[in-house]
Amino acid sequence: MTGYIARRLTFAVVLVFAVSSASLMLARFAPGDYVTESLGVNARRAAVDAARARYGLNRTFGEQYRDWLVGALHLDFGRSMQYDRPVADLIPERAVNTGILAFSALAVATLIGLPLGVVTGTRRRGIVPAAIRAASLVLLSMPPLLTSLFLVFVAAKSGWLPVGGMTSSGGEGLLRHMIVPVAALALPLVAMFERLQSQAMSETIGQPYVVATFGRGVPLSRVIWRDALKNALRPIASIYGLVVGTLLSGSFAVETVTAWPGLGQLMLGALRARDVYLVAGCAAAGSVFLAIGTLMSDAALAMVDPRTAD
Amino acid sequence: MRLFVAALLLLAAGCRSSTSSDSSFNKGSASTRGGELTASIRTEPRNFARLGPREATTDLVATLTQASLIRINRVTDDVEPWLAESWTRSADGRQYTIKLRPNVRFSDGHPLSADDVLFSFEAAYAAGWADSLQVDGKPLKVAVIDPLTVMLTFPVPFAPGLRILDNMIVLPRHKLQDILKKGALQTAWGLSTPPSELAGLGPFVLSEYQPGQRLVFVRNPQYWRRDNSGAQLPYLDRITLDVVPEQSTELLRLESGQSDTTASEMPADAYASLKRGADAGTLRLFDLGPGLYPDFLSFNLKPDAFAGDPRASWLQRDELRRAISLAVDRRAFADTVFLGAGVPVFGPVSPANKRWYWAGTPKIPHDPAQAKRLLASIGITDEHPARFTILTQKGRPTFERGVAVIRDELKKIGITVDVAALEGNAVIQQIVSGRYDAVYFNFFLSDTDPALSADFWLSSGSEHFWNLEQKTPATDWEGRIDELIRAQAVASDDAERKRMFDKVQEIFVEHHPMIYFVAPRIFVGSSTRLGNVMPAVSRPQLLWSPDTLTVTH
Amino acid sequence: MRALGLTLLAVIVAAAVAAPIAAPYAIDQPFRGLLNAPPTLPHVRDDSGSWRAPFIYPWTLTNQLEQRYEQDRTVIVPLRWFSDGHLVSSSDDGHVPLLLLGADSYGRDVFSRLVHGARLSLALAVAAAAGALILGALVGGIAGYAGGVLDDLLMRGSDFVIVLPAMYIALALRSAMKLVLPPFEVFALLAGIFAVVGAPFLARGVRAIVRSEKQLDYAAAASSLGASHARLLLRHLLPAARGFLGVEITMLIPAFIVGEATLSYVGLGFPDPVASWGTMLHDASSIRAFSDFPWLLSPAAAMFLLVLGLNLVVQHAGVAPVYNDTDGSPRRLRANSDTLRS
Questions:
Q1: Diameter of chain C by CA atoms?
Q2: A290 chain-C contacts, CB cut-off 8 A
Q3: pLDDT of residue B20
Q4: Residue B79 and residue B355 in contact, taking contact as beta carbons nearer than 8 Å
Q5: Is B255 helix (H, G, I), strand (E, B) or coil?
Q6: Which of B244, C11, C274, C340 could bridge across to C270 with cysteines, CB 3.0–4.6 Å?
Q7: Measured between CB atoms, does B242 come within 8 Å of chain C?
Q8: Residue A118 has what pLDDT?
């Protein structure tokens, strides 16, 4: 067991470094750099060159990478050029903000999506399953930008909820401000979980084993929820990790529209501004999220069927 | 016509509580004192001291917390005394003796003296952002005469005079001198600076920065300015700037009352929402007339840009650009891109720049037949059609729509346009490296006064968009413009300056290196709480004079 | 149910294929004075109660800046059938066009752009889905089958793909290409990128399924009968994942369609005026789409119908997963849910 964990941990660290290095390298191929964008078209060439030298952007890739690597080994991941703060300060701050959203959305999606999927998977006919199915499909065909805009629109028109932002000016009100972004993130996930679980459940029920249990007098609901469900959790368990990993990068639409200062928004801004160290840091944070997620996912899979764990 | 009248009425209504064009104001009663204002900004500032290139949010923060020796009144476009109480000019026009206001203190209590002014100049020149503080490429000389008097010497007589000082804020020497000595001024007062470290001469002080969320400013108890009745400004207790990256969300916050105003203007399609709010009495809508800096279509006029390209025979010709200007129906352009809320423009200076706009700018008619004749004269006919690429930035609706209109209109005269919409940084990279046929873009000049935006007009300038930083003028008309701009920068007579700059515009319009189509009308919304608003057309339209704003509470 | 799904899909595909005929206008034909105009619904009874051949009422602009329109019910404009190669259009195309789903912000007919855009979006989604399917199923299948180090490598590789900032890759790719991209290159690039980005989701689920299927008796039996690894994987194990794959594909397809608009931000999209559901929805993404111009959201409705059709076709078409029987041995459940309840 410890060997397994050690291996996973090593892989995770390797992934973090690989992703950061790849980001730094890719930044070289993307047109423009931080100076072109921040100084714009109007700057004198001399000023541009001076600024480039000051940020160290005129070095060769080898030099730049070596300096970054040496720093990283001392846990100094460089400085953000946009914010002029160490990357290692910026990322955890924003990662916490996104983490709050992501894990809340995941919890909501699991608590709502899974049971809904069980319902629609075990009952083919009826108004309720059909309505749930239709709602899931509607949510899946809405682009995340539109869903976020719509929820913010509703919040503004109804007047119950704050329009955007993470806290009120005093720093309070986090829960109230969370409702819209969490809903925007969670709704497509609810739909996804519902669809996957529905498929898995419908493949599971109605078999000799289940019929036999039913025939023994065990109530149907217990058969579904206790016996069949466990086996049907496999597909969701397997992609849980990926969902966690992509919630980070996929949340930028929600965060931008709801003015939630999260990692997704930070990364998008850093990409646009070619703030290379910040991008590398965000990508690294993303891989940490993903590593946590896949670990959760593999643990869930092992729980669901111990035989398939290694 | 009805729309125009309605707009005028709205403008009048919006200005009801503002005063005449004179910057003095009378609303000093105790009942209007206090309260707080919330505005939304789209991006975070770069730093807290405007120690770098001009950028909208950083400028706004500097307006709130810092001050310069003079202030440019955004409504009248006049230079007003600010930290400088008065000044005299020498006979040769090169020396200014400036008297500072007495008994002024920084927000931390430290008194202002001429040493701070000297230091601020040193800092500006050392930080490397001082192009805007140079005349003819040379810096100004600053000398301290006594603790309240400074002498400024220009390398050559400079007509705008002290107007140039709008580019420099007076920084606290006691806070920043050590940083300057260490050579770290470039990165001074960044976003991680604790608010207690900052000191300024502006009406407000930064009290809190919540990264990614908001900046909170409170009244500066040491602020030097007083209103007509002698009450100390600012009227407001607090200003909060919320970071809201998405424009739709900004609009919703305004409508729902969570924000009092926005730091920049709203696009034309937000008009309907703002109007609804205004009709319902929950919002105020300001229609500020045409903007100062419309989008433009510019061609790559570097002499050897198209060497070896068969299109070189027509792609850089004046006739092509004139034909394009004739072929595009500016009314239809305004209708499609700005929902009709736009004013056709034909030259590089917008009519919103009342002081410098050449009233004789010829109005180019919509004449596709004439355009085709011009094209034929440079070899473009139905048998030899023309095709080129317009580069533009993705994600900016006015660019995308403008280019779509241009493309459709040019198709009618036999020119095929390919549109390459790239990401922002990529576009800048292409422009800077000179690899494009034509680009549809926008940028703001540093000042309405041509002598202060010489980098755009001069062929050697870094903003001379169609052919950046030339060593010698590539064409004789650019050479003539160079002479005129240099001459009007030293001319002492205002009428003479205007005459010369009118001529510059005339030459520009004759050769159209950049083609302008429509200047959009500027719309800004605010809550009904705001009082004493003096709306101006340049950003930040409602917040440029924050010390005189009031709110009802 | 399946029949309904197939019918829906057939209708959508038919509309896409027949776009030049079904659409009254070209995708880049703007109608001046009709920006964001509401739909002109065909009527057969006029206000006085008499029956007529199908006709429409014109919209007149009452306020340009607020984009308010009023329907002029005194003017009857009959529809025109089978002319100019179009199934139906208006008899006064210049002033009173037939806008079945209203006009977009450039004044172009939304319905025409919708059916033309269906071609592009459907083709892209299908190509990308096929690519993701092949790539994901192979990677997941091999990983689940082989186990051990190969499994770890493949899964970490797919993790790497997910976490890499795709925008940088897209930017780098875009800058390496010429300024004006021919549509086919854009299409191929987008399909490729989507296939690579979508594959890891499929791979993960397939891997878990294959891993458990591998232990069943039939797999051991086939292997002992001499089936090669490839045959075992392709003929026996992978098909067990078809239920999962079906559901995942139906979720990836709308994501691909919408993703095209996101990638166009780095310049890797179809240029205006090319119509695609993704860009149409993106252009419509503003508050006014909800309050004033809901017809701009018709691509979302079209996507819903598409996803509904797909879902009806693939659901319940899967294979039961493996469970552990009371004695601990792995079994696959047979039959379907219909036997449990009627």
A1: 82
A2: 159, 162-163
A3: 33
A4: no
A5: helix
A6: C274
A7: no
A8: 85
- Whole-angstrom distance, CA of residue A82 vs CA of residue A39: 12
Nearest Cβ partner of A257 from B187, B246, B431?
B246
Interface contact B441-A41, CB threshold 8 A: yes
Task: Write the pLDDT tens digit of every residue in C10-36.
Answer: 999 999 999 999 999 999 888 988 999
User: What residue type is assigned to position B142 of the chain?
Assistant: V
Residue in B430, B432, B452 to test binding to A, most A beta-carbons within 10 Å = B432
Cβ under 8 Å to A: B residues 186-205: 186-187, 190-192
CB contacts of B424 in chain A (<8 Å) are: 37, 272
- Would an 8 Å CB–CB cutoff place B143 in contact with chain A? no
Chain B residue numbers touching A83 (CB-CB < 8 A): 44, 190-192, 211
Burial label, C16 (beta-carbon count in 10 A; 0-12, 13-18, 19+): buried
Run of H or E including B138: strand B138-139
Rounded to two decimals, the ipTM of the complex is 0.89
> What is the DSSP code string of B382-419?
SSS-EEEEEEEETT-HHHHHHHHHHHHHHHTTTEEEEE
Q: Which residues of B touch A36 (CB under 8 A)?
A: 425, 428-429, 432
Average pLDDT over residues B65-70: 94
Q: For the purposes of burial, counting CB atoms within 10 Å of the CB of B4, is it exposed (0-12), middle (13-18) or buried (19 or more)?
A: exposed
Helix (H, G, I), strand (E, B), or coil: what is residue B289?
strand
Out of B251, B332, B389, the one facing C180 most closely (by C-beta) is: B389
**Which tens digits make up the pLDDT trace of B233-290?**
999 999 999 999 999 999 999 999 999 999 999 999 899 999 999 999 999 999 999 9
Of A15, A124, A282, the CB nearest to C159: A15
Taking only the tens place, the pLDDT of each residue in B213-247 is 999 999 999 999 999 888 999 999 999 999 999 99
Mean pLDDT across chain B? 89
Token pair, residue B172, equals: 């606290």
Inter-chain CB proximity B336 and C292 less than 8 Å: no
Q: Decide: C261 and C271 in contact? Cβ < 8 Å.
A: no
Q: Rounded distance, CA A51 to CA A59, Å? A: 13
C142 touches chain B (CB under 8 A): no
Q: Hey, which chains touch B, using 3+ CB pairs under 8 Å?
A: A, C
Q: What share of chain A is helix, strand, coil (3-state, %, to 5)?
A: 80, 0, 20
Answer yes or no: is pLDDT of B15 > 80.
no
Residue pLDDT, tens place only, A8-66? 888 888 888 899 999 888 888 888 888 888 887 877 888 888 888 888 888 888 888 88
CB neighbours (10 Å) of residue B76? Answer: 16
End-to-end CA distance of chain C: 16
- Mean pLDDT over the full length of chain A: 84
Residues B31, B48 contacting (CB under 8 angstroms): no
Average pLDDT of A294-301? 78
Which of B275, B335, B420 is opposite residue C66, by nearest beta carbon?
A: B275
Q: What is the pLDDT of residue B66?
A: 94
C164-172 mean pLDDT: 81
Does residue B441 sit at the A interface (CB-CB below 8 Å)? Answer: yes
| Cβ-defined contact of B248 to C286 (cutoff 8 Å) | yes
- Decide if A36 and B253 are in contact by the 8 Å CB cutoff: no
pLDDT digits (tens, 9 = 90+) for A156-213: 988 888 888 888 877 778 888 999 999 999 999 999 899 888 888 877 775 566 666 6
Among the partner residues A41, A83, A157, nearest to B191 by beta-carbon distance: A83
Query: DSSP per residue over C317-334, as a string?
Result: -S---EEE-TTS-EEE--
Per cent of chain B over pLDDT 90 is: 72
Q: Is it the case that residue B28 has pLDDT exceeding 70?
A: no
